[in-house]
Amino acid sequence: MRGRAPLLVDGDKRHRTVVDTREGKPSVTRFKIVQRFKGYSLLEVAPETGRTHQIRVHAAALGAPLIADPLYGDGKPLFLSVIKRGYRPSAHDTDDERPLIGRTALHALSLTLRHPATGEHITYEAPYPKDFRAAVTQLGKISGG
How far is CA 136 from CA 13, 63, 99, 102, 142, in A? Predict the structure, then answer.
């Protein structure tokens, strides 16, 4: 699946990047579904161009905004009580329920760059942060995966 919508930076009064077929610059993002959950998907994303907020805008334009994205989605964190039927935080918990992930659910698992002097391709990898990993794990349990 590809996002191919032309994008215009600072295109609305909220200063967001927007899809604009007349004035937007060509933009391409490749999306691959890695895992499906009930109501959610884990995506592998490869931007072919480098527009501001490109991944977030294209995902939203395809009807799949990122969890907790305040600009291009609903901004709502992901809570276990929302995805797990019948779940209630424990009675001895004095705090409100903490979100599984409360930030925009976007993570660069790997990044490959060409070294400017040698031309060698160098790949940097970063495992999922704790909150991202917890969200994926819980979604997998609830979806039976």
Answer: 34, 20, 13, 13, 10
**23 closest CA partner among 10, 8, 36, 3:** 8
Count of C-beta atoms within a 10 Å radius of residue 4 = 13
Amino acid at 12: D
* CA–CA separation, 140 and 128 (whole Å): 15
pLDDT single digits (tens) 7-49:
999 999 999 999 999 999 999 999 999 999 999 999 999 999 9
- Contact status, residue 69 vs residue 86, Cβ threshold 8 Å: no
Neighbours of 135 (CB within 10 A): 26
If we measure between CA atoms, which residue out of 103, 98, 76, 75 comes closest to residue 87?
A: 98
Distance (Å, whole) CA 145 – CA 142:
8
| Nearest-angstrom CA–CA distance, 46 and 142 | 27
Share of the chain above pLDDT 70, in %: 95
What pLDDT is recorded for position 89? 74
pTM over cut 0.85 = yes
